[in-house]
Design brief:
This protein is α/β, with parallel strands linked by helices. The chain is built from 14 helices and 20 strands. The chain folds into two domains: 264 residues, Aldehyde Dehydrogenase, Chain A, domain 1 (3-Layer(aba) Sandwich); 189 residues, Aldehyde Dehydrogenase, Chain A, domain 2, CATH 3.40.309.10. Helix 1 crosses helix 7, helix 2 runs antiparallel to helix 4 and helix 3 packs antiparallel against helix 6.
């Protein structure tokens, strides 16, 4: 089933040949809407196939399918509205110093895009997922490298996308599918691939990123790699709602058997009586969590090895021991350690690396200086979470702790959550699912409307005769696009 080099080449050239077919925004929007409809109609079969390959369960996969089709429709609406083209027109003004020429700028598609499916989201971050949807919205054909954990689901979803393309009058080559490890490498190196989107491990993503950068003509590589997603719980928050925070943390770290990219992996919690109450609530909630199945044996082995290695470090103990459940399952748990062990370089640095699965590290701090010392050592993250007390949240706390902690975590993450949990990434225009390296390899988001920007590049036309201008930039605005003309939104 693994694609040969010739088959990868054929897939990429097929995508390249389909570029012109995606030029019409109306047809692109129709493709995205029809793909969503067909996925919904085939929902039972899609969920059954995905569950058989991932054991994520019908409930989780039903929600993921709904998210996937919502994304497709949201990008269809984005395409119809047209603001993502970012049309800017500055008319000539010879009276300025220096004189200004006529300049008209908008964004055009990069070309064929490589998409690397994620293991933990067989729908929403795979063949019909957000990378594919946003690339098609931009006008870029796609070649998807299927994840080896769900090949049948990938084939089924690709067939539905092909059918959607046929039904709206597009060639099937606007979406292509390849399988295999070497195919993934061949894909990112192919000279006709213009950009790539990846969700997966730091090791795999970095290898592909380096390959993209070392090409004779380097290409953008938008990789989502690894994230610790730190949580800071203040003493005031623990005193006010220790039980609520403990239960919420347990739910966030065990959701999906801990296989979400925004799982809280490090928690800075206070010592003392309030901290003990929080730990007790966390222990009870995690202990009540049933064992679950990880996506494949490699991840299970890595999880068990990671937990053993971390638990063996000096000063680390496990109030609830994570580990093997039944023959194929793992049980949830957490490790506890004094925060002082993490404040300086040493063997405990391993606790500052992501461990994929249902485990988190609770680091007990003695004062606010320890919080700052640990935060200062963290790499980039997709999210950072603050659990604040009431006065710290509403600004009536005269210490300014809430604002100070917010300022400390903002450089660490692409999304800052206050008095909530990072799991559950809303698909909405204001969302940002990205962060400093190693969370992502670029400044872009892979969720939300602005994900389309990854697959576009701006081009400006200077003093171009009106008859030669693309329709998007013509004076009479025949496509009815939102535009800024001479610095103002048109119509205002």
């Amino acid at each position: 089933m693994e694609a040969t080099a010739d088959e990868v080449d054929t897939a990429v050239r097929t995508a390249h040949a389909a570029r012109g077919a995606l030029a019409d925004r109306t047809v692109r929007a129709a493709l995205l809407h029809r793909a969503a409809d067909l996925l919904d109609e085939a929902g039972e079969a899609v969920i059954e196939a995905a569950d058989a390959e991932t054991a994520l369960g019908p409930g989780r996969l039903t929600g993921e399918l709904a998210r996937t089709t919502y994304q497709l429709r949201a990008f269809a609406d984005l395409v119809r509205e047209g603001a993502f083209l970012d049309v800017l027109i500055d008319h000539a003004d010879p009276g300025l110093t220096p004189p200004r020429p006529d300049l008209r700028r908008y964004k055009i598609p990069l070309g064929p895009v490589a998409v690397y499916s994620a293991s933990n989201f067989p729908l929403a971050f795979s063949v019909p997922g957000g990378d594919t949807a946003s690339a098609l919205a931009a006008g870029c054909p796609v070649v998807v490298k299927a994840h080896p954990d769900h090949p049948a689901t990938s084939e089924l979803c690709a067939a539905l996308l092909h059918r959607a393309a046929r039904e709206v009058g597009l060639p099937e080559g606007v979406v292509n599918l390849v399988h295999g490890f070497q195919a993934g490498i061949d894909l990112v190196r192919h000279p006709l691939i213009s950009a790539a989107g990846f969700t997966g491990s730091v090791r795999g993503g970095r290898a592909l990123y380096d390959a993209a950068a070392s090409r004779p003509h380097p290409i953008p590589f938008h990789g989502e790699l690894g994230s610790l997603n730190p949580v800071v719980i203040t003493e005031a928050a623990a005193a006010e709602r220790a039980e609520q925070i403990g239960a919420g943390l347990a739910g966030a770290m065990t959701l999906g058997v801990g296989q979400f990219c925004v799982k809280p992996g490090l928690v800075l919690a206070p010592g003392g009586e309030a901290g003990e109450r929080l730990l007790k609530a966390l222990t009870a909630a995690v202990s009540d969590t049933e064992a679950g199945v990880l996506l494949d044996h490699r991840m299970r082995d890595a999880f068990l090895d990671g937990v053993r290695t971390r638990a063996a470090l000096p000063g680390v103990h496990a109030p609830v021991t994570p580990g093997a459940g039944g023959e194929h399952t793992v049980s949830a748990g957490f490790l506890a350690v004094p925060a002082a062990h993490l404040a300086a370089e040493g063997p405990h640095d391993l606790l500052l690396e992501e461990c994929f699965g249902p485990v988190t590290v609770v680091a007990h701090y003695t004062d606010e200086a320890e919080i700052g010392a640990v935060l200062a050592r963290l790499p980039g993250n997709l999210s950072a979470t603050l659990q604040l007390g009431d006065a710290e949240s509403d600004g009536t706390d005269d210490t300014g702790r809430g604002a100070r902690l917010l300022a400390e975590v903002t450089p660490l993450a692409g999304r800052v959550v206050v008095n909530g949990w990072p799991t559950g990434v809303a698909v909405t225009p204001a969302q940002h699912h990205g962060g400093p390296y190693p969370a992502t390899t670029s400044t872009s988001t892979s969720v939300g409307a602005t994900a389309v920007e990854r697959w576009l590049r701006p081009v400006a036309y200077q003093n171009t005769p009106p008859a030669l201008l693309p329709p998007e930039l013509r004076e009479d605005n025949p496509l009815g696009l939102p535009r800024r003309v001479d610095g103002r939104a048109e119509g205002r």
